[in-house]
Design goal:
TIM Barrel, 14 helices
């Protein structure tokens, strides 16, 4: 073997051995590195603002459209949108209809579309092992964080807070990317002298890669109960613009939005004004720039996902059908949704 070829072979073998050494395996999975607190602090700053919940596009036959999702996200990344986090596989993303292979492909498409220009958060949910696999999918795809949904069944029952804490902790510790916790309604169930979710979140804030929480309570009591944690440690994210009207002036640092995919600048300004406490300005932006676009979801009950997809198609982006139990848009409503999208979506 010529000397140059031999050196190339040895160099390749050395790189392969180094890669194996960097990823010791435990139980068939690569052991994650410890979350770097400085990196997490930077990421905590980056995810403040609008959390744009993306739908998951499907082909006409119902199969996952990875390229469509990549292009939909690249549309935002290439536009130079600021103070926006891309969220895939959330409730809007039909995560409960995806298999693990599709989930992995979704995470990869999202990271490829964002190209590091926007933070990417990938949903993880289901039973304990399922959530751990989804968390690993997100990390290996290059996502910045996961949106970790509360465990099914047990999260709202008094006395099960320790189990919920263990669930969140073990999933969070299985990865070295960030974790945003998705709480659910039921935070008023007491555990001892503290309310359920504030107690859980206070404990979980000790984990270095737990960045914040999505609050679905529609109130500000949870954020107030957490006190300085929501300014010093946890990013409080209000769910939807209606909740944000109350929560942003009270200390929340961001809000989720279904229509930020169409009116990102309006949603960004709405969030900015909320953090400044300018409620009247928030209401004006909501009334004149956000709610007109949100009509694509409200023409008929059940259009909250399918209406978004039809509007995306009207603008030349990827949408497609919804999977059960999602409700499809009626043929007679499609032109109406398309007209709303063309009139009110930002260029």
């Amino acid at each position: 073997m010529p000397g140059s070829s031999r050196r190339a072979l040895l160099r390749k073998m050395g790189l392969m051995a180094g890669a194996v050494a960097l990823k010791p395996r435990v139980g068939g999975l690569a052991r994650p590195r410890s979350a770097n607190r400085r990196d997490m602090d930077c990421l905590r700053e980056r995810i403040q603002g609008v959390h744009c919940f993306m739908v998951t596009p499907f082909h006409p036959d119902g199969s996952f459209n990875a390229e469509g999702l990549r292009r939909n996200i690249a549309h935002h990344a290439d536009a130079g949108i600021q103070d926006t986090t891309i969220v895939v596989g959330g409730g809007m993303g039909e995560i409960f209809s995806l298999d693990l292979k599709e989930h992995r492909a979704m995470a990869a498409a999202a990271a490829q579309g964002a190209r590091g220009k926007l933070p990417v958060v990938v949903g993880a949910c289901g039973g304990y092992r399922m959530a751990r696999i989804m968390a690993r999918n997100a990390q290996e795809a290059g996502a910045d964080a996961i949106l970790l949904f509360a465990p099914p069944y047990w999260n709202w029952i008094p006395g099960y807070d320790e189990g919920t804490i263990r669930y969140f902790t073990e999933v969070a510790q299985s990865i070295d990317i960030g974790v945003v916790l998705a709480t659910v309604s039921g935070h008023n169930f007491p555990t001892g002298t503290e309310k359920y979710w504030p107690k859980v979140l206070k404990r979980l804030s000790e984990l270095p890669n737990v960045l914040g929480f999505e609050d679905s309570s529609s109130d500000i009591a949870m954020g107030q109960e957490l006190g300085d944690l929501v300014s010093d440690r946890l990013v409080w994210i209000a769910r939807g613009e209606g909740h944000a009207l109350k929560a942003l002036p009270a200390g929340a640092r961001g809000n989720t939005s279904a229509v930020a995919t169409f009116v990102p600048q309006a949603c960004r300004e709405f969030c900015k004004q909320g953090r400044l406490g300018e409620v009247e300005r928030m209401q004006e932006i909501l009334r004149t720039r956000i709610q007109p676009m949100a009509r694509v979801r409200g023409l008929s009950p059940g259009y909250h996902v399918s209406g978004i997809k039809v509007a995306l198609e009207a603008l030349g982006r990827a949408g497609g059908p919804v999977r059960p139990p999602g409700r499809a848009v009626r043929p007679e409503d499609r032109p109406r949704i398309a007209a709303i999208a063309r009139e009110h979506a930002e260029a």
